[in-house]
Amino acid sequence: MELLFVVGARPQFIKIAPILRTIKKNYSEKIDFKILHTGQHYDKNMSDVFFDELKISKPDKNLKVGSGSHTVQMSKMLEGCENYISKIKPDKVIVFGDTNSTLAGTLAASNLKIPVVHIEAGLRSFNMSMPEEKNRILTDHLSSYLFCPTDKAVDNLKREGIYNKKKLKGMDNEQIIVIKCGDIMIDMIRLILKDINNTDIIIKNYPIDKNKYILATIHRESNTDNIFRFKKILNLFNQIEEKILLLAHPRTKKIINEYNIKIPNNVLVKKPVGYEAMVILEKNSKYIFTDSGGIQKEAYFLKKLCLTLRDETEWQETVDLGWNIIGFNDKYNTLLDAYKELKKRENKKLNHPEIYGKINSSKKIIEALLN
Question: Where does the record locate the signal sequence feature (predicted)?
Answer without folding.
Answer: none
